[in-house]
Design a protein that fits this description.
Blueprint lengths: L4 H6 L13 H12 L16 H16 L3 E4 L5 E5 L9 E6 L12 H16 L8 E6 L12 H6 L5 H5 L9 H8 L7 E2 L8 E7 L4 H4 L4 E7 L1 E10 L3 E2 L11 H15 L8 E3 L3 E4 L5 E2 L2 E10 L2 H17 L5 E10 L2 E2 L2 H13 L4 E6 L5 H5 L4 E6 L15 H19 L6
Helix pairs in contact: 2-4, 4-13, 9-10, 11-13
Bound molecules: (2S)-amino(hydroxy)ethanoic acid and manganese (II) ion (MN) (2 copies).
């Protein structure tokens, strides 16, 4: 679905609603500016959590926020908050945002669109002359993707109290660098940014994100009102064998970690075959040591990402992993660590209605739908009422350098967000 920019403005009535003040060019130019930070030759973005590129992108965001007069604060795990002060500053804020970090072959929109849509929505509220009662905050969550520091949803998980600060700071990447070290490295960039306590309360949280699936485009819809997120387990499997000479070591005495790992992965993929294609099993990372052509592999470490919308069934699937790995270990040892379990979540029903009302008022075709991808709104929903707005992904392509969403679709999602944040900012306030 890609209507031109003027059509976008036509679907918006002439009221002073913030949606009328969302600036299509400013939003899409900022997205293009951000995509230059960590740009890959194939047209994607590689901006891993807490790398210099991540720091640079956060600083650019701080610059835009400061220019708008927003108050910038940062918590101990590196989450960044940009605050539009309200006339009743003691009320808990309406918050909107997403993540800045990407997958190694990430696209230009996953995460960063939600951060910049929130900034644009705040800018539109200001431009509309709206004075918010409740404060409205934009948030950039740190390490949502979990590709450098596993598991994912780190910053939002700490905010929601699902993960301790200490445990998060101790996470290490494949080079042994900890989150603590990486934050330390970036510290000088944020010297002028005030610290804020962890886990401050939100009145409501709304995240705008590309759908990362084919539904909205296939059905020619502009807006997805997200009803919830499917559940997910992540595991780390370590297989220990014995290094040996590939020429002299007889097969019958080998302890080949890679052969054992391959047997485990094959058996798991067969165990998780689902004719309805709802169960999602992925091995995305596999590290072989010493990774030398003439050495029988001594150790293999591989990841498992396992998802399903039904909590009970997901739990059953989770049990299959350790027993299957043990069964196929052969002469090797195997250690299965469950890193993270996110139960399937349902988003706040009133917020779903609020988002639907805003989409309807803007005359935007919409649908309620489940998210197959994880988002920071998931952990946040465990603590505060949360909701999500989806916009179409071309071909459903994502976690891929060719990820694309039409600019007009990005703008429409931002218009819906602007009106939702504006109406939430007036709820539960002293008249
Ligand atoms: O894993 C996810 O679903 C998210 O894209 N990090
Ligand atoms: Mn994302
Ligand atoms: Mn992602």
């Amino acid at each position: 679905m890609n209507i031109s920019q003027e059509q976008t403005s036509k679907t918006v009535d002439s009221s002073t609603r913030p949606s009328s003040f969302v600036n299509h060019d400013r939003l899409n130019t900022r997205l293009a500016d951000m995509a230059k930070i960590g740009a890959t030759p194939a047209g994607g973005v590689n901006r891993a959590a807490l790398t210099p590129e991540d720091g640079k992108a956060q600083l650019l965001l701080v610059q835009w926020a400061t220019d708008l007069g927003l108050k910038v604060t940062r918590d101990a795990i590196g989450n960044l908050f940009l605050r539009l002060e309200g006339t009743q500053p003691d009320l808990s804020p309406v918050v909107s945002g997403s993540h800045i970090d990407t997958q190694p072959t990430g696209g230009k929109f996953d995460g960063i669109y939600g951060v910049l849509a929130a900034l644009e929505a705040v800018e539109a509220i200001v431009a509309s002359g709206g004075v918010v009662s409740r404060p409205v905050e934009v948030v950039a969550w740190v390490n949502e993707e979990g590709s450098r520091f596993a598991p994912s949803m780190m910053g939002s998980g700490v905010h929601a109290g699902l993960r301790s600060l200490e445990a998060a700071l101790n996470l290490i990447d494949v080079d042994g660098v900890s989150v603590r070290d990486a934050l330390q490295e970036l510290e000088p960039l944020f010297e002028s940014v005030a610290q804020r306590p962890l886990g401050l309360p939100f009145y409501r949280y709304v995240e705008t994100h590309i759908e990362q699936g084919p539904v909205l485009e296939r059905d020619d819809l502009a807006i997805g009102i997200v009803t919830g997120i499917q559940g997910k387990h992540t595991f780390r499997v370590t297989v220990n064998g014995e290094a040996a000479h590939s020429g002299t070591a007889p097969h019958k005495t080998r302890k080949d970690a890679l052969l054992a790992a391959a047997g485990m992965i094959t058996a798991l993929s067969e165990a998780f075959v689902d004719p309805e294609d709802i169960t999602r099993f992925t091995v995305g990372r596999l590290i072989v040591e010493p990774n030398a052509p003439s050495v029988v592999p001594q150790q293999v470490v591989f990841s498992i990402d396992l998802r399903h919308p039904d909590q009970e069934y997901l739990e059953q699937l989770g049990q299959v992993v350790p027993e299957t790995c043990q069964r196929h270990a052969g002469p090797c040892d195997v250690h299965v660590e469950r890193l993270y379990t996110a139960k399937p979540i349902a988003f706040d029903h009133q917020l779903q209605d609020d988002i639907e009302a805003a989409a309807r008022a803007l005359d935007l075709p919409h649908i309620r739908m489940l998210s197959s991808a994880g988002h920071d709104a998931g952990p946040i929903q465990s603590k505060f009422p949360a909701g999500m707005i989806f916009v179409p992904s071309v071909g459903g392509v994502t976690h891929n350098e060719t990820e694309f969403t039409h600019p007009a679709d990005l703008t429409r999602g931002t218009q819906v967000l602007a009106d939702v944040l504006w109406s939430l900012s007036k709820e539960g306030v002293d008249a």
